[in-house]
Specification:
Layout: E1 9-13, E2 18-21, E3 24-27, H1 28-36, E4 41-45, E5 57-59, H2 68-74, H3 78-91, H4 111-124, H5 126-133, E6 138-142, H6 150-158, E7 162-166, H7 181-185, E8 194-197, H8 200-210, E9 214-216, E10 238-242, H9 251-259, E11 264-268, H10 281-286, E12 292-294, H11 301-306, E13 310-313, H12 318-324, E14 328-331, H13 341-345, E15 349-351, H14 357-365, H15 368-371
Parallel strand pairs: 1-4, 1-6, 4-5, 6-7, 7-8, 8-9, 10-11, 10-13, 11-12, 13-14, 14-15
Antiparallel strand pairs: 2-3
Helix pairs in contact: 3-4, 4-6, 5-6
Length: 380
């Protein structure tokens, strides 16, 4: 497992952006890095993630030794206390739906309990994480702020090694882990040293707020798909709605989906949303309608996009992925407009208010050659 005299990097696969492709589990982010440079990268599973069936991986050996729990309880340095303060600053910005302990089935935790859970896990596994980190020069990880990954981040940083956060979407001004300038000024060992980002807007924001370098790396899932599925014979246009976790659809959007039955609507839940679609009031109401489908979030995103004519969302970075294959997106979060400047300038993305989205959507969808097949209502 050693470096063997060459640069060696570990990609920690926590199961983010997993898809089922041809019946096989594929980890789109970590697998792509390993395949791009197999002489440098090796994939290791962590935090309960199952194996990818495309790239060989091994389980991170976080085995405790008898003295590890004692050190976690009683051996504290001044740096450890600073890191604990930074962790509190990091976690204070997360809304209650994101404060959860999946293993115990606990959700919407009070801040103090979530903080104690996180710091206990980091401290307890600091020893085995450090022993693992001794074998590599660099760590690449998705969602550094995830409570499961912080122990690894801490171990690599404590050993003065590089940690790169792989952005699993367009994260920035609206995300509590990245828009917290006070946190990034702390210099904590719980924070990454660099980023892999999706576009120039993310690079500019993160470098300005965090003071750390960011490299633009477009994520192209098309390498995993030798052929796209048949779109079927249904003449109705299809709209993909990507849902955000912790946020329901605006009433205007729910009413539009319910009313426009001349459209096939596909609602795609966020793959990490702890709340199943049946527990969401908006999904529960719309799923009863024959022209609405709730998709499996494990379906490859590129397949969902290929099968749609238009994409709508609050502020998902799926806007970027849709533009990459020529699909237009409408989004209603005005605060994220600058992040999609490139897509907007190409005519592949457009901000619309929730009040106006029905009118704009129909103008985008029902051009002349489709009007004959239109079966749904229109705005007055």
């Amino acid at each position: 497992m050693g470096c063997h005299g060459r640069l060696s990097a570990v990609v920690a696969d926590f199961g983010f952006r997993r898809s089922i492709i041809d019946g096989r589990s594929v980890s789109l982010l970590s697998d792509a890095l390993v395949e791009r440079d197999p002489d440098r990268f090796s994939s290791w599973r962590f935090g309960g993630a199952g194996p990818s069936e495309r790239v060989p991986s091994r389980e991170v050996p976080l085995r405790l030794r008898p003295l590890d729990p004692l050190r976690a309880l009683f051996v504290w340095s001044r740096g450890d206390l600073r890191d604990a303060a930074a962790l509190r600053c990091l976690m204070s910005g997360f809304p209650r739906p994101m404060r959860r302990i999946p293993l115990l089935g606990l959700t919407r935790l009070p801040h103090w309990l979530w903080f104690l859970y996180a710091i206990a896990g980091i401290r307890l596994f600091a020893g085995p994480a450090a022993r693992f980190a001794a074998n590599f020069d660099d760590l690449f990880v998705v969602c550094f702020y995830n409570t499961k990954s912080l122990a690894l981040v801490y171990a690599f940083r404590a050993a003065a090694k590089n940690v790169t956060d792989i952005q699993h979407g367009l994260l920035g001004p609206t995300h509590p882990a990245y828009a917290n300038a006070r946190l990034w000024r702390s210099g904590s060992r719980l924070l990454p040293t660099a980023f892999l980002v999706w576009n120039a807007a993310a690079k500019e924001f993160l470098e300005r707020v965090t003071g750390r370098p960011a490299e633009i790396r477009p994520f192209d899932d098309s390498v995993y798909f030798p052929a796209m599925p048949d779109r079927g014979e249904d003449p109705r246009p299809c709209v993909l709605v990507t849902l955000q976790w912790g946020a329901t659809l605006p009433p205007q959007v729910v009413d539009m989906v319910a009313r426009l039955d001349g459209v096939r609507w596909v609602l795609r839940p966020h793959p990490r949303d702890p709340e199943p679609p049946d527990d969401r009031e908006d999904c529960r109401r719309l799923s009863l309608l024959p022209h609405v489908k709730i998709s499996d979030p494990a379906e490859p995103l590129l397949v969902s996009l290929y099968c749609c004519d238009l994409h709508i969302t609050e502020n998902s970075s799926v806007v970027i992925e849709a533009a990459a294959i020529g699909r237009v997106s409408l989004f209603w979060d005005e605060s994220i407009k600058s992040a999609f400047d490139s897509e907007i300038s190409m005519g592949l993305a457009r901000w619309v208010s929730a009040d106006a989205i029905s009118r704009i959507l129909q103008a985008e969808l029902f051009f002349e050659e489709r009007r004959a097949g239109m079966a749904g209502g229109t705005d007055p």
